[in-house]
Recover the amino acids of this structure.
């Protein structure tokens, strides 16, 4: 999955970049849900879940190129 979205790029190796990316996606998903756009909210929630998994649960610095 990381290769498909490019989440294992060297750019995301620093913790602050991974945290900021995930936080922006969670925030945008919340914004969309609060405004009644459930499809876009769900889309960004799925992206947020993928980044949270890749960046924090399945994180291995050796996989980042």
């Amino acid at each position: 999955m990381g290769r498909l979205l490019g989440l294992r790029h060297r750019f995301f190796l620093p913790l602050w970049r991974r945290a900021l990316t995930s936080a922006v996606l969670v925030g945008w998903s919340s914004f969309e849900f609060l405004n009644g756009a459930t499809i876009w909210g769900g889309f960004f929630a799925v992206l947020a879940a993928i980044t949270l998994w890749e960046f924090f649960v399945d994180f291995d610095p050796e996989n980042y190129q």
Q: What stands out?
A: The chain has a mean pLDDT of 91.
